[in-house]
Amino acid sequence: MIEKYYIKGGTPLKGEVLIGGAKNSVLKLIAASLLAKGTTKIYNVPDLTDVDIMLKVIAQLGAKVEHNKAEKSVTIDASELTGVTASYELVSKMRASFVVLGALVSRCKEAKVAMPGGCAIGERRVDFHIRGLETLGAKIKIENGYVIAKAHKLVGGEIYLDIPSVGATENIMLASVLAQGSTRIQNAAQEPEIVDLANFLNAMGADVNGAGTSEIVINGVKQEDLHPIEYTTIPDRIEAGTYMTAIIATKGKGIIRNVYPAHLTFFVDKLLKMGASIKLLDPTSIEVSCKNRLNSINFITQPYPGFPTDLQSMAMTLLTTANGVGIITESLYENRFMQVPDLNRMGADIHQDRNHAIIKGVKKLSGTTLAASDLRAGASLVVAALMAEGESVVGKLHHIDRGYEKFEDKLRLLGGKIERKSEEFPINISEETHNESYL
Predict the structure, then answer these.
(1) Residue 108 is among the residues annotated as catalytic for this protein
(2) I want to staple 188 with a disulfide (CB 3.0 to 4.6 A). Which of 68, 159, 216, 267 is the partner?
(3) What's the structural domain count of the chain?
């Protein structure tokens, strides 16, 4: 069986939507829970396939896991870890699980974690992770597709990242918590998810300072200083940005609840310049609306606090029907315009030149058959289908399920005409009529 979205576009989205916990934060909090012996409970956990995979990874290491989806919580008993190997079968499904490397080296002084491999949106190197752990004293070798790390003891050191890699910053933070002395990470990632991880670790008894700036200092503590905690994950800024985009794209009006507006400052600024209306209702609620045709803008994706690469495809969807010509420069990943061919099939006028996309606004998009190529590109195609004339079918929903909890249900609450249907996989299809990319 395969699942597809059937979407009828042209209906303005109206109402309220509640944002869930941040996927890119909760995955790292789950890994961090391995550091403290005892039972840790994390709240505001979204029901996503990525979360399921991460829980399987730590269960493979010996942690006892309980996922209460009704309560949106996970309970992790890391009193005893029985293994230090994160298998390829799991790590290959989700790159973020590679962050257990730092946690295992920190607590167990050894780890064997599968190399995460390729990624649809482009290369994501792990050499920054490895060099950082080596600076702390870990001996690392790569063998048969696994990173094998051992450390008699870890000692703090000075680490400079060539680029502010989120994953490398997180892995080094986790490895440094139990290292002797102080570790200084320079040119560290500044994302809100980094701050959330630091707050989680500090609540657990760690000593992490400077998270949210380009320099993070971790003063090592002893294992007995760490204790299990209860903690609530921050809201997902990318999910919030996606629903903001959908409301604006359909010329609707809606309220986004459980959002931290400060996490979306650059994105909001660009939406305002395009002509959208965004009002702060209270510290965690905003009202979003749009009546008129948007104006084109130019922007470059950058590490936080710059324009988030995870919302680049959403902004591109808005630009397809905006006045004038907009230019997007993707500075972080070399293959993050995977939505372009499908948007052009809907009637958009987008020309791609390496890491630049030139979008000439057209009057309307038309519904057609589409396929999610990755998580964010897939979500942007759903938004495009909601704003287009006619009906669209979106396939390969497993990409979207990685990062959006009950996506179609929340869109229907806003009035979106979207249905998820299962179909039997067609077995005997000739090569001339079968195009796998649209399954």
Answers:
(1) no
(2) 216
(3) 2
Q: Same domain for 29 and 16?
A: no
Which of these is catalytic: 64, 89, 119, 429?
119
In this structure, the answer to whether residues 199 and 294 fall within a common structural domain is no
Say yes or no: 13 and 114 in one domain: no
Which is higher by pLDDT, 122 or 5?
5
CB 173 within 8 A of CB 197: yes
Q: 338 and 208: one domain?
A: no
pLDDT at 425: 67
Please report which confidence band the pLDDT of residue 439 belongs to, taking 50, 70 and 90 as the band edges: very low
End position of a domain, from candidates 209, 232, 255:
232
Query: Rounded to whole angstroms, how far apart are CA atoms 139 and 105?
Result: 10
Residues 52 and 141 in one domain: yes
Residues 6 or more apart whose Cβ sits within 8 Å of residue 246: 13, 252, 382, 383, 386, 411, 414, 416
Same domain, yes or no, for 38 and 14?
Answer: no
- 307-355 pLDDT, tens digit per residue, is 999 999 999 999 999 999 999 999 987 778 999 999 999 999 999 999 9
Q: Is 226 found in the same domain as 334?
A: no
Give pTM, 2 decimals.
Answer: 0.94
Are 105 and 242 found together in one domain?
no
| CATH code of 50's domain | 3.65.10.10
Structural domain harbouring 392: 2-20+235-438
